[in-house]
């Protein structure tokens, strides 16, 4: 079972701590078990025979035992917490490390939201169960078995009372738990729905406002929220029921012990002190039973979480490092697509079919075509975000599948369609690919990328770059790539948020960077690519025409249509 595997394998670094917890808990429980029998002695010998000296002495021992019990319990919890928290930290960092090795395809398959939940909430569940296990694992068995032995030693004649109380308590708690479990499972589902709704609404708040859908969305959220609340109330009601029921059982058990015990004291079968001790042992046994049932209640959830975490940790990234990596002998940045086809995992048909072209250094290759024709997909094969399902992508003559990821990334820079900025400053974002870049280099890249809104390199950038506009984000991410100075520059529709004049200014400024490099541009606007050395016209995943702007105007009907459609829209 995954939970056992996770706990056993990951406890290894904390073996010393785990042993300490177990020993300390054993000590603390033994002390707890010892106390009632000392109490019995004080009553039966000290009080009954008015032996003040004996009362003092045994009372002193009780004090020391109680002190040891408290100290051992505190220390056990301290070691237990450190172990459980340490295990949680290790798990989280392993999940993080594994996820950073995932390819784009793996990320698509899992989904960001669930990976976050698994790395936070699920780990927390495991931590909690582990912490309880460490503390109950020793306490509950010792307390229940030891309690039974000690109780029988005090008065064997009433042991049937222990059996009856345990059975009644178990039956009552089980009845409640059986009704709670499905509610718990449903609750997890409802929580997911509410989180999902909330996430979607916050992320899409602008669209909601733009289409004045606030009322509709509020209603959707209200429903999700109400479902969760109703279920939580049901869970709460059962929980509330649990406490009075347990209290009643404990009190009835106490009453029964006093009733039957009282008669036995009358008959001289047992002494008062032993009766008191018996009562305390009975309560301890019932407490141990409650611990056990509580564990049984939270265990299934942890089992599910462990399974979800194991799925992440054992998922082999779909793109792995080659066993014998090859490094290209040249460093020119020549990109070659050799009969490349590509199909997304789970998709019904390929989105690229037999794409072949070569982009050499010092030249610009442009991809143009209808929405969904596969331009972005083709571009994302260059930095090895995906591997082709057929054919090869070569970088300086070497298949990128055979290169180390680091070697590919060093040579290739991509400005994605939706650029992402990290929380920090302009400088920290620009230095992402070149940590040693000087301020001067940053300013130069900003100037070329027309990011003239930046007045200070320490300007704050919010998570995701949400405190700058879409166009500004694009300029910053262009600057970020310029700073890294790769051999291959990939622009995925990176100029779309720029106006025509800025677009032209950026492209002409970039020549000082890209003169020797290979540039591949995906563009919607023909004006962005008229100067390109070769233009590939894509349609439904195929390259249907290639050539310069002039050549294509002559030869390609599709290209002419694209040019015409843009002229019409410009006039309009
Ligand atoms: N992660 C994915 N999983 C499955 N199919 C995908 C995925 N991403 C894109 N596709 C599909 O692949 C096809 C090509 O998409 P791609 O993004 O490469 O097109 P594009 O030419 O760049 O479009 P646009 O100009 O709109 O950016 C589309 O039909 C799209 O539905």
UniProtKB/TrEMBL annotation:
Residues 19-301 form the ABC transmembrane type-1 domain. The chain crosses the membrane at residues 14-35, 55-79, 128-152, 158-181, 238-261, 281-299. Residues 335-565 form the ABC transporter domain. It is a multi-pass membrane protein. GO terms for cellular component: plasma membrane. Pfam families: ABC_membrane, ABC_tran. InterPro entries: AAA+_ATPase, ABC1_TM_dom, ABC1_TM_sf, ABC_transporter-like_ATP-bd, ABC_transporter-like_CS, P-loop_NTPase, Type_1_exporter. It is found in: Cell membrane. PANTHER family: ATP-BINDING CASSETTE SUB-FAMILY B MEMBER 10, MITOCHONDRIAL (PTHR43394:SF1), ATP-DEPENDENT PERMEASE MDL1, MITOCHONDRIAL (PTHR43394). This is ABC transporter ATP-binding protein.
């Amino acid at each position: 079972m995954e939970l056992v595997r996770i706990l056993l394998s990951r406890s290894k670094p904390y073996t010393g701590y785990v042993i300490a917890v177990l020993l300390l808990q054993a000590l603390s429980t033994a002390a707890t078990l010892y106390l009632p029998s000392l109490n019995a002695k004080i009553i039966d010998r000290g009080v009954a025979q008015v032996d003040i000296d004996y009362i003092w002495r045994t009372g002193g021992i009780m004090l020391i035992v109680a002190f040891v019990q408290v100290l051992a319990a505190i220390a056990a919890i301290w070691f237990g917490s450190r172990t459980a928290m340490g295990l949680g930290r290790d798990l989280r960092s392993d999940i993080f490390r594994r996820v950073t090795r995932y390819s784009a395809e793996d990320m698509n398959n899992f989904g960001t939201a669930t990976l976050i939940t698994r790395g936070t909430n699920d780990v927390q569940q495991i931590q909690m169960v582990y912490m309880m296990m460490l503390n109950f694992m020793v306490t509950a068995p010792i307390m229940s078995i030891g309690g039974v032995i000690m109780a029988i030693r005090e008065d064997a004649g009433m042991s049937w009372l222990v059996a009856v109380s345990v059975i009644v308590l178990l039956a009552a708690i089980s009845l409640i738990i059986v009704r709670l479990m499905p509610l718990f499972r449903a609750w997890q589902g409802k929580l997911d729905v509410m989180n999902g709704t909330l996430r979607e609404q916050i992320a899409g708040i602008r669209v909601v406002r733009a289409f004045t859908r606030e009322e509709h969305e509020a209603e959707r959220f209200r429903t999700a929220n109400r479902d969760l609340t109703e279920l939580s109330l049901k869970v709460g009601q059962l929980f509330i029921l649990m406490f009075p029921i347990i209290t009643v059982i404990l009190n009835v058990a106490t009453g029964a012990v006093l009733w039957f015990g009282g008669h036995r004291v009358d008959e001289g079968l047992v002494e008062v002190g032993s009766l008191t001790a018996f009562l305390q042992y009975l309560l301890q046994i019932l407490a141990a039973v409650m611990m056990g049932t509580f564990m049984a209640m939270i265990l299934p959830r942890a089992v599910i979480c462990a399974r979800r975490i194991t799925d992440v940790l054992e998922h082999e990234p779909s793109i792995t490092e080659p066993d014998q990596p090859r490094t290209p002998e040249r460093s020119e940045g020549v990109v070659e697509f050799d009969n490349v086809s590509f199909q997304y995992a789970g998709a019904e048909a390929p989105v690229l079919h037999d794409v072949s072209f070569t982009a050499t250094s010092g030249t610009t290759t442009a991809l143009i075509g209808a929405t969904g024709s596969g331009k972005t997909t083709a571009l994302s094969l260059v930095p090895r975000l995906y591997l082709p399902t057929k054919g090869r992508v070569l970088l300086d003559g070497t298949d990128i599948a055979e290169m180390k990821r680091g070697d590919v990334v060093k040579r290739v820079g991509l400005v994605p369609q939706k650029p992402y900025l990290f929380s920090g400053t302009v400088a920290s974002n620009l230095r992402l690919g070149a940590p040693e870049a000087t301020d001067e280099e940053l300013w130069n890249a900003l100037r070329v990328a027309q990011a003239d809104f930046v007045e200070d390199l320490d300007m704050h950038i919010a998570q995701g770059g949400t405190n700058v506009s879409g166009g500004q984000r694009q300029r910053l991410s262009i600057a970020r790539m310029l700073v890294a100075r790769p051999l291959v520059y990939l622009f995925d529709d990176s100029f779309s948020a720029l106006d025509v004049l800025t677009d032209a200014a950026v492209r002409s400024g970039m020549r000082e960077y890209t003169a020797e490099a290979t540039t591949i541009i995906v563009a919607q606007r023909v004006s962005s690519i008229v100067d390109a050395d070769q233009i590939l016209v894509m349609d439904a995943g195929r390259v249907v025409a290639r050539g310069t702007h002039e050549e294509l105007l002559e030869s390609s009907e599709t290209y002419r249509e694209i040019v015409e459609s843009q002229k019409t829209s410009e006039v309009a």
